[in-house]
Every structure is written in structure tokens, then in C-alpha cells.
Amino acid sequence: MTLRFTNGPAEPRLALGIGGQVAMYDANRAPTLSIASINVPQADFRLYRLPDADLRGLLGRDFYQGIDKYSPPRPTWFLQWNERLSPGLNAPAMMTTTLTADRTNSCQNGNYTGIASGIAARSEHHVL
Question: Is position 1 within any domain?
Fold first, then answer.
């Protein structure tokens, strides 16, 4: 008996290399993000300034749900860019991007919220 089967494409996934939804960076170094993906050809990033009062509210009880539902106070973003990711169907991709190099604005010390999204992948919300 011979069995043959074909797998369909894996579900698109995008994950940032942050050990949770909150990350802290050394102010003396350029902040970087590690990204892992499968079947996501491009990741889109938006970085927003996060007011201190909003940060305090997000870091309370049940903060995971709060971060996912948080909308920046203004519809404008501080930085926006995209990165090419997927090398091919069902092939995992990994890369690192910086939040400051070759961007028109540089990140000053402070609080930020970032949103990473990709075609057909669930958006990732983080406090940086």
C-alpha cells in the first residue's frame, strides 16, 4: 500500500522576539527587534509615542488584554516602515530590524507602543 498526501500552506504567522508584550531597551544602544515569520511576505510596523499616563494604565491588572486593545491617542504614527520576510511557501524566515537606523525620525528616550502586522497574520501589539 502506498499513501500519498499533500499539505496545504501553513497558517501565516508573525512573531516578534520579545519575551512578552512589554520590552525595555538600553538607552545607550540602538533598539532592535527580532522577527520570525512563516508565509508572511512582508511585515508592516508602526511605532507610536506612548504618554506616561497611558503606560501606567496599560501595566496594571490584565495588561495583556489592555495592550491588545490599546489605540494610540492620535491617529498619527511616529515611525512606519516595512520589511520583506518570507523566502517561500512554508519556509520560516528570521531577521532583525532596528527602530532607528535609516529612519526619518529617531527614537528619543521614552515610552512607545508598536504594532507589527503582516498579510493574513494576526497583528502583534507591544509596549517598547
Answer: no
pTM of the model: 0.74
CB neighbour list of residue 121: distance below 8 Å, 6 or more residues apart:
12, 13, 14, 37, 40
pLDDT at position 103 is 54
SS3 label, residue 3: coil
CB-CB contact of 81 with 103 (8 Å): yes
Strand partners, 44: 82, 117
**What does the pLDDT average to over 88-102?**
80
DSSP-H helix ranges across 33-81: 52-58, 63-69
Flag whether 5 is in a domain: no
* pLDDT over threshold 70, residue 48: yes
Range of the domain at 32: 13-127
Taking the C-alpha atoms of residue 80 and residue 116, their distance in angstroms, rounded to an integer, is 10
